[in-house]
Amino acid sequence: MQALNKKATSINLFDFKSRQMRAFHLSWFAFFLCFFGWFGIAPLMAVVREELDLTKAQIGNIIIASVAVTVLGRLFIGWLVDRIGPRITYTYLLVLGAIPVILIGLSDSYESFLLFRLAIGIIGASFVITQYHTSVMFAPNVVGTANATSAGWGNMGGGVTQMIMPVIFALFISLGFLEAEAWRYAMMVPGFAMILTAFAYYKWTTDFPEGNIRDLSKKDLEYKRKKKADGKGALKAAVSDRRVWALFLIYGACFGIELTINNIAAIYYHDFFNLDLKTAGLIAGLFGLMNLFARTLGGFFGDKAGIKWGLKGRVGFLGIVLLVEGIALVVFSQMTLLPLAIGTMILFSLFVQMAEGATFSVVPFINKKAIGMISGIVGAGGNVGAVMAGFLLKMEGLSYGEALSILGIVVATISTCSLLIRFSKADEKIAQEELEESLAQKADLQPEMVNS
Question: Which DSSP category does 9 fall into?
Fold first, then answer.
């Protein structure tokens, strides 16, 4: 589809041979499994709550624990992936992250369950690797769409797990296991799947279209020198850029909200609408399933806005989508009839995930020498948002509906942070030149694709 030493200028979903598309498919699938393992226990919390006799405050602490460690994980992984590349980083993360997913079944108290839930949160750092890998594999005309689709299909694991884990749980029940045993064995399924994917990632991906970091450093001394020079200033450049911290807050207001809903949706529908575990899980799963296309739409329209209006077009689209997300969340929180609650949740989910896609249609253009570090900081913002929301949700005197209404107002307010994300005329010019080059390359490739 493209020369191996160039970034892909189009996304061919049925291409499993080029390095760019192999990285695309394996990165979203690895992230999908990480998300599945990360939130696999969420739809089973009603069972765990009864067995371990958990209070609302303790469940709140568990929700916070599940996303808190990911903040540090994403910052570390962002630093690491810039240095050793996405291939090795993802391999290690999948294997190490699978361990607490499998072992959470050993929990026999609130304290032990909390510690395992905390450890599982590290696999949320997989997002940074996914975004890094697609950022370095795809050209400016489609990078937003590639980032949004790979992350969206990965995030879909949060919706699928709401639907599938109750089924896996029921399967173990049908085999004669007690409820107290079934949820423990169910969590082993995503853990072992993660380990198998780690081997596939190591075998079938490369760090860049040109090859792996280790091979490139051996062949090209200039590449090795440049890589070291870029790495020294990456951290300082990232943390001193106010645009990075604006995106940090913005991502907290979209992905942080998605994490929060993934954690509470099943138990919210179970308690508020008196639904059984399986039905509550199916409805909650609709929220995550919107990732099949919603996040892609955010990246796609971000790319289109960038093509028409430049980098400021990408940022403007992001601000508008985030504002609508906040309004939609407030509306959802007021619903007391089940059909209306489902409908408004789906609408709200659409804009949450579009905002996430739009965010990472901007990130690759902030500083190309520090994509991993910036992706890590912005990604960590999503988890900080989830932690803050977790503290709100654990308050005994505040219902989930009231807490969600407050969060909606906060999201709408944070949308104004998009005004802080500005690019210089030089940045706009460079981005426009790169865009024109990628569009020209894509046009040149069209006859080759037709002839083939």
Answer: S
Rounded to an integer, what distance in angstroms lies between the CA atom of residue 258 and that of residue 45?
Answer: 18
Q: Cα 355–201–12 angle (5° rounding)?
A: 55
| The two three-digit tokens of residue 286, written as one number | 């609709």
Residues 6+ positions from 85 with CB-CB distance below 8 Å = 207, 208, 212, 213, 214
Q: pLDDT tens, 237-282?
A: 788 999 999 999 999 999 999 989 988 898 899 888 999 888 998 9
pLDDT tens, position by position, 205-229 = 999 999 998 887 666 655 555 655 5
| Residue 367 to residues 40, 236, 300, Cα–Cα distance (Å) | 35, 12, 21
CB 122 within 8 A of CB 96: yes
425-441: burial string, b at 16+ Cβ within 10 Å, e else: eeebebbeebbeebeeb
pLDDT class for 164, splitting at 50, 70, 90?
Answer: very high
pLDDT for the residue numbered 445: 65
Instruction: Write the CB contacts of 424 (distance below 8 Å, at least 6 apart in sequence).
Output: none
Specify which residues 8 forms β-bridges with. Answer: 138
Per-residue tokens: 50? 């009864």
